[in-house]
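Honest question from a wet-lab person: if I give you the sequences of every part of a complex, can you actually get the arrangement of the whole thing, not just the pieces? Trying it with mine:
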Amino acid sequence: MKEQKYEVEITTFGLKDIFECGQCFRWNQEANGSYTGIVKNNVINVKEKENKILFHSKGEDNLDELVTDYFDLGRDYEKIKQTLAKIDDHMRQSVSYGSGIRLLNQDLWETIISFIISANNNIPRIKGIIERMAKAYGKEIVLKKKSYYTFPTTQELAKASVEDLRKLGLGFRDSRVYETTKMIKNKVVDLEKLQKEKDFVSVRNTLLTLPGVGPKVADCILLFSSLKRLEAFPIDVWVRRVMNELYIKNPQENKVKKAEIEKIAYEKFGSLAGIAQQYLFYWKREA
DNA sequence: CCACAGGACGGCT
DNA sequence: AGCCGTCCTGTG
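Yes, you can. This is the full assembly:
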């Protein structure tokens, strides 16, 4: 455990845009506007100062390498935004609204469990459940006299029974998390292999074998974890709403088929469909 | 009291 | 293959 500081100068990096666009659950805003979160076995505080981003951490990993990977700093978001903004006026506006968004490379295991919990659920409650899970089964890190808890490893979470999970407030998701944990622990699904697998459809199909992982959750995992497939296009009620409002215009929104939404998304946005969805979603939900 | 929330799943047609 | 009721819990 060591404390470290690191700073970078980068144009596309908006704290609120990154942490509140719906991709992560373990970051909270401080009174001074900065955000504190837990990444692997590290607590990280992030703040903006003029045109720089300042990181302060306590934990095991080298901070510069950790944030370069986690915040996807190697990717040129300015270029992505330019490409998307040229598509049409909706995209130009949404990119302008969420101009600081970056898609995080979150730990695959943590992302799988987090998004299983997200099913039919809202963000405050999801965050509460994950927080309680971390406190019960993760490891403590103390920074500035405050306790933080790492996301439990597969082995740590495997200690929890279905009843234990129910007590943490998972509701009907308890058995899904329990079964998925068991499958990953026993390498019925091997996450290290999955991380190296190239074929999009094959990775997605493997994710779909996990209890609690349906089409929407699978696409969130593909888009928001270290799998980082920018073409993955999660369709939930909000995206359905936005896509219908902007491109389909069916008066009976609930009758629009998922296949139709997907077709339009890939025609318009191609391999950037997922990240395009994120700008649209953030824009319409916040506004 | 009921509807609904950023879905998945199983049973039915 | 598509449709629909049900699944915990918190909030309005």
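Two things worth pointing out. The mean pLDDT of chain A is 95. Chain A has three domains: 2-74, 78-100+230-287, 108-224.
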